[in-house]
Design brief:
Rossmann fold; 434 Repressor (Amino-terminal Domain); alpha/beta; 40% helix
Amino acid sequence: MSITAKQLAARLGLSEAAVSLALNNKPGVSSATRRRVVETARVLGYDFSRKASPDVRKGTLCFVIYKKSGAVVDDTPFFAALSDGISMGCRRERYDCVIRYLYEDDGIESQVYMLSEAKFAGVILLATEMDEAALKRFSQINMPMVVLDAYFEQLDYNFILINNIQGAYMATEHLIRRRREQPGYLRSAYPISNFDQRADGFYKAIRAHGMSTAKSPVHRLTPSQEGAYEDMKNLLAAGEEPAGCYFADNDNIAFGAILALREAGYRIPEDVAVVGFDDMPACEYFNPPLTTIMVPKLFMGETAAMRLVQLIEGRNSTPLKIEVSTRLIRRKSV
């Protein structure tokens, strides 16, 4: 009776997935491991006419969600869609996926150390709320890693991110062309790299249309619907005269600001037009439906998973920055 792949894995002290890859001459194991598996299989009488089960998993990827304030990264449809995209990519490549949360206030160094000691094939790190210094702490992780939803020029990692400059530029240009006036900016009070890039796109569009950047009013609002509502409500109560149109750093800021403006008697879009960013599902049902920038969230997550698998399996190890393009969705708020 010939030995099975499962028995062979136990004899060699390898995972069944690694043995399957070696026996089927697939990428994902080293040449030395492949030779050892094949030679041992021949000695022990393995039947090479059988193919290992296609359902055998190659390993486990870890989706790490880093939270600093939690005001931006929360259980919203945006991040749920990213997670769904990652899961789709993992299933396609026959990897399992687990989710881990890391919290800035809970001793990040020890959490990173524990992650580095885990037996994952690779890590996708959601770095939305990270700054460059925080991301550097992950250099000790001795496994392939892809950074999702952030970018820092000084770090030589693999990055998958939104083309924030493009999206903010399109949104601002749309306001200028439709309203024929200088847009204001509903800017996040929380500094993260995505919003910094959106600011670059906003001001680039302002300059491209011959306007002075100093003349665009900027209101710093909390990047949640409730927070933005309270902040905008307080500004209006203090006598702030709103601009005729605004670009908002995200949809939640736009939602909150619109609610406060309507409560104060302003009509949307007749008195004040607003464009958001992210295209959350609620945009379609908001009153009025929100013009916004669509981000292909599922595709971003899937791309992150596919890129990580390339790194794990030794295909194209050169660090890449992949920017996913956005699209303007026209609705009734402009």
